[in-house]
Sequence to fold (259 residues):
Amino acid sequence: MAVSSRPPLLAFVSAATVTARDARACLEKRYGAVAPAQADIIVALGGDGLMLQALHRNIRRQTPIYGMNLGTVGFLLNTYREIGLLQRLKRARKVTLTPLRMLATNTRGQHFEVIAINEVSLLRSSRQTARIAVSVDGKKRLAELSCDGALVATPAGSTAYNLSAHGPILPLGAGLLALTPINAFRPRRWRGALLPRASKVDLTILDPRKRPVAAAADSVEIANVAKVTVTEATDIVLTLLFDPEHDLEERILKEQFAP
Fold:
């Protein structure tokens, strides 16, 4: 069978900033563009928020996404350059990510299913601390965690909100999830746990009407939750593309030695 030598069909998506929109116009003029549904590769122009948005919007197509940073941090993106994009795409390394699936039930008995690429987080919605029971694989591990909240993070998300909450940084190939408390009051000495990636984490809100809690899967928030179950979404595989010199695994490793 003959191998096609045509360049890949590219779709460009951008943040709403003037800089990102202008860059998108220049790249589309230089390389041509198709709709994301027809693309071999999607090129995302913006910051990490835009990259997460692009991943969520194309989660079922599972089209590889190559990001170029026109935002602030750009942890999930490559350096922006207009020239040489096709050569960079040809040399790019693939990194596959498996997201989390959040199943949430609110105090009215309504059920929600949301996918999270970085983390699932629970946060108190009132001035009172949240009270959360924690079970892993059906076994109760904490009868009561008094805290501002808690989160379950993927390796890719471990350098984001999880790190800000003093959670551990996880290498991509570690096969682990981070369960991290947010400002834990009781137990005082509990700093979280490292769990096998196949774990099922149940977070049950104690007294949810008096002490309301909201759950968020990345940017999707569910108010007044009574119970949240987090598992790995093994039926979904996301592919990101990185320049060899900006490999995501190397970035995560560097974060562990950052001053």
User: Anything to note?
Assistant: The mean pLDDT is 93.
